[in-house]
Amino acid sequence: MRIRTVIIIKNKEEIEIMRRAGKVVAGALKKVGKSIKPGITTREIDKIVEDYILSQDAIPGFKNYNGFPASTCISVNDEVVHGIPGQKVLVEGDIVSIDIGSIVQGFYGDSAETFPVGKISQDKVDLLKTTKKSLFAGIDKARKGNKLGDISAAVQQVAEIGGYGVVRQLVGHGIGREMHEEPQVPNFGAPSDGPVLDKGMVLAIEPMVNMGTHEVKTLPDGWTVVTADGLPSAHFEHTIAITDGEPDILSLV
Ligand code: MG
Ligand code: MG
């Protein structure tokens, strides 16, 4: 049996609202990126993000989402996603993934980036570079008439060149009035998989790439997802709209 997924198409006005939500998360990432240095705590990062989102007359999209206790998901080193901000102090050589959501006029924006803390090792530099590259390889396939699997396969192909593990248990998603809408956007798969992409679909594409195994596990806090082998992980995400032509990245400043 094939389960039919209902993908909500957004009109031009709705996409412009989503662009504003995307701009807020992009602005928050830009602002917080400048503050990341050894000695800062993840709670301080969360405060900078929350203050920025509120200053833009937007609502933090993650706060209280399914009970998440902060505005920002902050995941350090072997933490993949959904790390809870707290007293953890960042030190030179860490990498920190910052995932931010916003709500503007009832629509969500969602974007993430992994930042270096001070000087990081070359293998971490390579991991960040490859993960970002895999995101943009996926975005390039987000075109009307392509299949969703074209995105997934492009992400996987780039990410696995480095011998990295592409996380399978967590995926990207459609986004709109709900943070997570249909369809799921896996970071692995075959070009022939999934529905045909159409104008007005809005997707959050978000490769999570591990230096080692793709296997992950969730910590007892119920949120923080970490790599099974303890090796570092990176995460880059953009919210994009499918158009008649080029992919339209909504989460840009
Ligand atoms: Mg996100
Ligand atoms: Mg997302």
Explained architecture:
The chain has a single domain (12-249), classed as Creatinase/methionine aminopeptidase superfamily (Creatine Amidinohydrolase, Alpha-Beta Complex). Helix content is 27%, strand content 25%. It is built from 4 helices and 15 strands. The chain has helices at residues 12-33, 42-55, 122-140, 148-161; strands at residues 59-60, 72-76, 79-81, 95-104, 107-116, 165-166, 172-174, 181-185, 202-205, 208-210, 216-218, 225-227, 233-235, 238-241, 248-249. Helix 1 runs antiparallel to helix 2. The chain is globular. The N and C termini lie far apart (43 Å). The relative contact order is 0.19. The model has no long low-confidence stretch (mean pLDDT 97). One magnesium ion is lined by residues 99, 110, 112, 206, 237.
Short description:
This protein has about 250 residues and is α+β, with helices and mostly antiparallel strands.
Rg, alpha carbons: 17 Å
Mean pLDDT: 97
* Individual helix count: 4
Query: Could you give me the name of the CATH homologous superfamily?
Result: Creatinase/methionine aminopeptidase superfamily
Would you identify the regions where 5 or more consecutive residues have pLDDT less than 50? none
